[in-house]
Amino acid sequence: MIRTVGIAGDWHGNINHAMWAVKQMEPHLGEEKIIYQLGDFGYWPDADNYSSFTGMLSRFLGKLRVRLAFLDGNHENHANLKEKIDDYIGDYATAPARDLLIPIAPNIEWMARGYRFFLGGREWLVCGGAASVDRAWREEGRSWFPGELITDEQEEKICREGYADVLLSHDRPAKAPIDLKSGVWPEKDVAIADAHRERLQRICSSARPSYIMHGHYHMAMEDTVDMGWGDVRINGFTCDGYPGNWGILDVETMEWVHGG
Ligand SMILES: [Fe+2]
Predict the structure, then answer these.
(1) What is the whole-number distance in angstroms between the Cα of residue 89 and the centre of ligand 1?
(2) How far apart are the CA of 239 and the centre of ligand 1, in A?
């Protein structure tokens, strides 16, 4: 039985940080050890350092008997992830939510948008994706992919499945407060990011989770917000190299029992 899980924010393919974080979390996990990574994992199969990143991490996880499941952030190769859906799932629209877990390497799996599982007496829903406000500095097909944004089809599928107690996401829903620096990013990209947070809010309004955990903003945040169906606790995490990138969650009490 799983009592505690690791939850981690963005890693950006940083192998030193990823291994350090896994090593910190592992002693606090029970017999069945699992870590959920909340996107910007570093899924770049075409990058020179990709095979060493996943290879080293996969072997390290194996030695510690830890399973890692990541969701997709904005900074991943979404074209390749789409191929994974085609290869492993086939028709996304009709695939059962519990099947949306795709092997990437030994001990590493990708939780596709809409993946659901049952843990600690609760229904957990996963939905990656976020908008890159730094898109102007990226090249489409190499360092940026339109697939970073949740689509109408994905939103409809997830909303059709209804209720969930817990949401793991990359983005932060619109009703959760956030203090972003204005004037730094191009206005049109900020508008896309705002629309994406609204889309995630619609998914929340359908699933009505009581707990949301996300990455993307590289900030440690904890807020409790009444979103219309009761209080929702929202935790945001920092990224690789910063304190506040990971936490150990008791999945029965939903209390944080360790963090770093
Ligand atoms: Fe990130």
Answers:
(1) 27
(2) 7
**Å from CA of 134 to ligand 1 middle:** 11
Q: pTM surpassing 0.85?
A: yes
Extract the tokens encoding 15: 């192998």
Neighbours of 192 (CB within 10 A): 16
Q: Report pLDDT digits (tens) over 82-93.
A: 999 999 999 999
H helix intervals, 95-211 = 152-161, 187-207
DSSP annotation of 205 reads H
Residue 182: pLDDT above 80? Answer: no
pLDDT band at 49 (very low <50, low <70, confident <90, very high): confident
- φ/ψ of 227, rounded to 5, equals -95, 10
Closest CA to 8 of 50, 81, 71: 71
Interval between CA 217 and ligand 1 midpoint (Å): 7
